[in-house]
Amino acid sequence: MFGFGKNKTGGSPPPAPIETAPAPAATEPAVTPAPRGPTPDEALQQLRDGNAAFLRGENNLGHVKANDLDDLQGGQNPIATIVGCADSRTPPTILFNQGFGRLFSIRVAGNTVDRRGLSSIVYAVKHLKCPLVVVMGHTGCGAVAAAESIVDGAALDPSLEEMIVPIIPPVLAARAGNGSPVEENARWVARKLATADASLADAVEAGTLKIVAAVKQMHSGEVKFLDA
Ligand SMILES: [Zn+2]
Question: In this structure, which of 3, 19, 25, 207 has its CB flanked by the most CB atoms within 10 Å?
């Protein structure tokens, strides 16, 4: 298929290939080394700054249009992985004023993490070199309220079991300590993540990763970072 053998005349060896026209310009974008990403603390500050800008009514998301994706064809280097609630009022991109390529998001009602979620987080940390994981709950979370109602004796809807059951231990812990179930749930998931996979534990130990808990205030949109 490459023309081998077509030049065999009289048993002489095929002529050496002749350089003709220069090769057409590559259509694939050049792959350039990824710039150094932010440290965990720098990434956290960028999220704080982005949320502060959101609260001031500024929209500086950056990359938000289809054309902007051209700049991101070489890969992604998200500054943070957000483990958030599926609640339609808690989109990390908007709350943190970050456009395409900035946030790697895993969103499940109640911001818990199952095995698939954990693999996604490990992928972001290990392969995308993401320096920060934020477990972000929110006030007025229906999933946490559902877990509280089970603790209070309501019947468990089997269809919602996978969503609710993981939230029951932090609800019990919050009640034992008179804490906020939403805050305790976010802290609980963050603590679990820190030891859920060796690669995450190693990155935390090495200082290349921080895992923090946060709560988005439903009414104001402020994201309050807990213990960070
Ligand atoms: Zn929620």
Answer: 207
- Cα of 87 to ligand 1 centre, how many Å? 5
State in Å: Cα 111 to ligand 1 middle. 7
What letter does residue 108 receive in the DSSP assignment?
A: -
CA of residue 145 to ligand 1 center, whole Å = 9
Q: Crossing angle for the helix pair 181-196 and 198-206, nearest 10 degrees?
A: 100
CATH number of 40-226: 3.40.1050.10
pTM of the entire predicted model: 0.83
The string of pLDDT tens digits covering residues 94-109 is 999 999 999 999 999 9
Confidence of residue 33 (pLDDT cuts 50, 70, 90): low
